[in-house]
Structure prediction request, 405 residues.
Amino acid sequence: MSLSYIAKNIQASPTLALNEKAQILREKGEPVINFSVGEPKSRAPIDAILAAVQNLNTGEVRYVPPDGIPALKKAIIRYTEEFYNRKVAPENVIASSGAKQAIMVALQAILNPQEEVIYPAPYWVSYPEMAKLCGAIGVPVYPEDGSFYPRIQDIEQRVGSYTKAIIINSPNNPSGAMYSEEFIADIVDFCERRDLYLIMDDIYHRLIFDGRKPINCWEYAKKKDENSKLIIINGVSKQYAMTGFRIGWAVANKKIIEAMTNIQGHQTGGPSVVLQLAAVGALNGIQSSVENLRVTLENNRNVMCSLLKTIDGVKFSVPDGTFYLFADFSAYEKSSHKLSQMLIDKVMVLTVPGVEFGMEGYIRLSFAGTMKEIQEGIERIKWAIDPNAPNELYIGDRKLVRDWA
Ligand SMILES: Cc1ncc(COP(=O)(O)O)c(C=O)c1O
Prediction:
């Protein structure tokens, strides 16, 4: 079949594919533990549900402006004041179908074919594919010291005449690393000096642990006018457990937002009004669910870390935020795909191979599930990879027998 060059070069999202796989196994009644999930387990806030239902009850669900309804823009403006200490106008804001679409449309608004967008590794799986969708080139930067914390020198070295933009995602999916305040200050300054766009993917910025506070990139901007090339991305998916509502946003200078609006207007015409109203409900409603989620995740992280420590040879750094832990299993298996496959086949634990995030030998483990899943999942992984493990493991009343070395 004759497909486009872009279509032939785009990979399916590995995380979405894994979720489908988990669903199929569950429907068959298999006792799957899904460590590949990229979403919290908790329910969406009641204010979000009520706002959506109220709108649906009118029976009149219509087209709305492609850049977002005024009520949502107002809520995003308030959010931007609270977390970024930045006063913006409605023309500085666009609401999209998830932070994913906000990033995609931003890249389409700024990248020409063959231009480069840089991001630190490990990186979110969608960045390279989004660059390809623009005909552009994604350039991962590997911190020279082998850590998950990039240094400004690492980035500087990769910037060339084709570099147009840098994407920073902190705390980071998949490593959970929250970059230092100093690094954020340096990268904002660097991008201003080199006249580069800086996309701050802050989707996990409130899901942080050990008393950390969200870092405000805007505080370090010297260009605080309409010449700023800083694009701030956020959304309700993770912090409000509203992944299925598909509402995210971007805050940037008016020219960028106008270009993004033109593109989005032809792509989707903007997110559904029902879902935008749900996001308004979440942003303006009772906020306790965010802190409850954060505390649950911190607790889950602690348990996952203490259990993983009992597996010899597995190396990891303790996540500062998000709900992901990125562990180095190369002492057991160098191919992350082989390891992930083995964990599904032998003990029905779903993980995401690290190579999808640009780092071979690692796997991503999500701790967004229940405590029981975390305990049982790590126990199963330990059993599967430890050659000295007992010959048998019970999953409920099902007996697994070790028939591999
Ligand atoms: C780093 C990062 N950015 C953006 C997104 C997209 O979030 P949304 O559900 O709002 O599209 C995700 C979702 O997994 C993510 O991990």
About this structure: The CA atoms of residues 31 and 373 lie 10 Å apart.
